[in-house]
Amino acid sequence: MASPLEQFEIKPIVPIEIGGLDMSFTNSALWMTIAVVVITAFLVGGVSRRAVVPGRWQSAAEMSYEFIAGMIRDNVGPEGRQYFPFVFSLFMFILLGNLLGLIPYSFTFTSHIIVTFALALIVFVLVTAVGLIRHGMHFFTYFVPSGVPGWMAPIIAPIEVISYLSRLISLPVRLFANMMAGHTMLKVFAGFTVALGVLGGWAPLLINVALTGFEVLVAVLQAYVFTILTCLYLHDAIHLH
Q1: How many domains would you assign to the chain?
Q2: The whole model's pTM is what?
Q3: What is the pLDDT of residues 75-130, one digit of tens each?
């Protein structure tokens, strides 16, 4: 029986080597491409008709748009509207990556720390750039909150810097760990179902069905958490505490 961790193995589909570097098109890249294609088809198809009375497809596209717009409005403020394309793209990419990974024989690219770290790094660089561009050197006052006595600044500042840098760890690890753990559990109970056969396999099968429903919830929740934390980081960069 295959190992529960075998599903996370990255395999080349189109081998490509440039200058000694492995640039192969892998199963991970394939499912990222599929996610982008599905998102594009969903949004373009949803808004193509623009009916006065929207159908289900158009309603779903409009709801996803308004959901992220409301999240930015509530957590960043009016200044956050210019970052809507980035935040919306981030949410949809992570959501589709999580959900597509639940399809049998697919690949969950959000279960790899290198992918989630790359997304977190993009968020980190963007937020830091926004803070520096908007506030200049005044941005560094973020690490010494207002009202802190001067004698405590040498203590508080390093703590704030460490907390700020820890976003590069907490943000990607939370997503990758939840995806990897959930899919591993599904694979383990699926193995129990096959091993126990027709007579004893019904119990782990029922558990697997329940876990699948739970994993759908986790997939949506983790995309939401990643996105709302991005909005909160943008709020901090724009408003500085």
Answers
A1: 1
A2: 0.90
A3: 998 889 999 999 999 999 999 999 998 888 889 999 999 999 999 999 999 999 99
